[in-house]
Amino acid sequence: MSSLSTHILDTISGRPAAGVSFRLFQEDAVLFEGVTDHDGRCPALREIPLERGTYRLEFEIGAYFRAAGHVLSDPPFLDVVPIVFGLGEGTHAHVPLLAAPYGYSTYRGS
User: Which keywords are on file for this protein (predicted)?
Assistant: First the structure.
């Protein structure tokens, strides 16, 4: 089995993004729903055993920036950020998200 973690950073404030709701999918099945803590992480995600395969994380980034007091376009340019990635057998993947209202980036972390 494999494991997964994520870390969300608010690139506008330069701080971790606390309170971001997100979901983990495999195909159309929701495997996990969580919210980031004060450090922009969700430790419970790491406890979900995952098999080799393709997964999708969806982050509710528009709601986060609205709650933080940012005025967003209507509709917001970025509302839900999806990241589709593959996971090998017996590995750990760390999928960070660096986000702003008009852009984001990700990479395979360690």
Answer: Hydrolase, Purine metabolism
pLDDT in tens, 69-102: 999 999 999 999 999 999 999 999 999 999 999 9
The number of CA neighbours under 13 Å toward the Cβ of 3 is 9
pLDDT, one tens digit per residue, over 25-46 is: 999 999 999 999 999 999 999 9
- Whether residue 97 contacts residue 82, with contact meaning beta carbons closer than 8 Å, is answered with no
**How far is it, in rounded angstroms, from Cα 91 to Cα 68?**
35
Task: Provide the 10 A C-beta neighbour count for residue 54.
Answer: 11
CA gap 41, 44 in Å, rounded: 9
Order of strands, sheet of 92-100, starting from the edge strand that comes earlier in the sequence: 15-16, 3-10, 92-100, 103-106
pTM: 0.95
Query: Does residue 48 sit in helix, strand or coil?
Result: coil
d(CA 94, CA 46): 9
Q: Per the structure block, which two tokens stand in for 13? A: 């404030």
